[in-house]
Amino acid sequence: MSASRTAPHLLGAVVLLVLAALLLARGPLVAAAGAAPLEWRLEQPEPPPPPPGVQGSEVCQGGEPANCHRTPVGLGRIGDIEFLKSNLGLLITAGNGSTVLPGVWVYNGAGWHELASVCGATDGRIAWAGPLEFWTISDGRPGQAANGEGVLPPLEDDTLCRFAYNQTSEKLEVVDSYAAPAFQASSYQPMHAAACVSSTDCWFAGAPLPEPEPGAFHLHWNGSSLEAEPNSEVETVQDMRIFEGRLYESVALALEEPTRFGETETEILHPSILQEISTAETPVHQFAPLHPKTSEGQLLPQYASHLGHQSFPPALGFMHLSADEESLWAAAGPVETPPKGSEPAKLTVLRDSGGAWTQVLGPAETGEDEPSESLKVDPSNLESEDVGALAAEPGSASAWLALDTVTDLKSPNATVVARLLNVTAEGALSEEQVPSEAQRAEGIGAKGAGYRIVCPAHDDCWMATTQGWLFHLSEEASPSLPVETAPAFNGEVLTFRPRDQGLPQELSDALISEAPQEEPPPPPALIKTVTPSIFATTTVPLLSHVHTRLVHGSTLELSFHLAVKARVRLLAKRHASVVASTPMRTLKAGGHSLQLRLDPRRWPTKLALQTHALAPLPTVSSRNSSVESISTSLAFPKALGISGWGPSL
Fold first, then answer.
1. N or C: fewer beta carbons within 10 Å in the chain?
2. Which domain holds residue 386?
3. pLDDT tens-digit profile of 182-208?
4. CA 270 → CA 193, 241, 352, distances in Å?
């Protein structure tokens, strides 16, 4: 264990205060007599056995089969590790391309073993929905056709798997798999965050919606179905956490954040970096922007400044989130290239406890007698580090950070030693190298930078490196935990993933022969033959029968017909500013109307109708003589004296 994990040097402090500070910072971690010190130890599981007839990398002592073991290897990129309790955890991996398949592994208190060789992901996520139920953000499966330009559909992190225990078969199964057709307005986008409030309230979010739709992609599971619930006010979502029964998400700021109508100066200088998603059973969920404040009302985070030059909010990366019973932590480092005219951001750590936020690390508000570059990071050489992962440690009022440069996180280097930082709520720091210098001298080589950290209990944490190696922080080399014996997590490896709900189930013979099968294909007699039609097909437009009129001189009424269920919002803009808008509403297929009250003093110069279809648009055949051309042009009220506007689709 590195002796550097001590409290900060306190000049002039008496011996008792030094000892108290060491205990607070968890000191040199020399435990009581008879106990081993805390240490990050390599605990890499054996790889899965090779297929029948394939020679594995087994090492046998004395030539005895009972003494054979397989040589550990990296598991590939581990996108997420989530624990339900100290002796039950899950990780999702992309596989290493040879011996380890993309899938899910489980920790049962005795060690890690493969749980499923399906539903793996390039950079997946895991969300526990109950003791015997969880979700994964997984890679899609090949099989869908390319677009008109020959581009194949994206597959990375854009599908979902739901694992649950089948009481009848007494086995854990992948009970549902969800995907969406590619290259459509309703296509699933790459997802970076997942969390479940309960088994009937789970959220998944990530990349921006396809242009021109505003906002970040979201899916909501209500216990029976998945519904699209985009957050139209943010660009991307990078993390989610449950804290005290409330669901928080971390958003990434665009390098050039637009100024929205109605924002105050404070909101512009401190844009929302966190959002809270309402978990009430309402038809449309609300996304509330949050602005963390101290108990004195000071807005956080504070942004770096140097000699009068300011670091803009988008210069700080997204906030990694982690929570324990007492607090919610948020940590971020600088982006690789700050916005034009901005100073680089600095390492920043926030903590919410009891409803009051504090800035544990980062730029401090300057006073009259302080230099403008004042920072709450000691030693100062850490202030420019990026954050790769964050984990709150229960029962300690501290958290772990994985540090690395932005470049190393984007292009992982197998020869890099992981650098971890333990930070207390008071800002006391201690840095660790994993493996330690002593471990490297014993032959344990560097395994890459820290990529994921999780702490299921006090003095009990796990770290995964960029190369897929696992290190365990504990007082013993093999902690004596009760073994989780539930059949759900100790059965045969799951190899079956059902067909994706949301995709057409009528597959051509060519598609069936090309797509990898994780289940035996149905007999040919059960496959519906799809005969190409000699008649052209036309996609029905989402909007039709659009009409507008002015009511009482200043209220615009827009009526229209939706072909399928969709989210709709009407905006009025005066040049680049939004001067009026309706709430984003989810409407069923059929006829509807929206009313928008306009201010004569800020008369709009442009109107835009934002729509997002929540189901595939139907098609009609030209063989049907009753098919008519459907116009979606809008008749703008002449009284407004404006022309040349139309729906934003």
1. C
2. 38-143+154-489
3. 998 889 999 999 999 999 999 999 999
4. 23, 21, 17
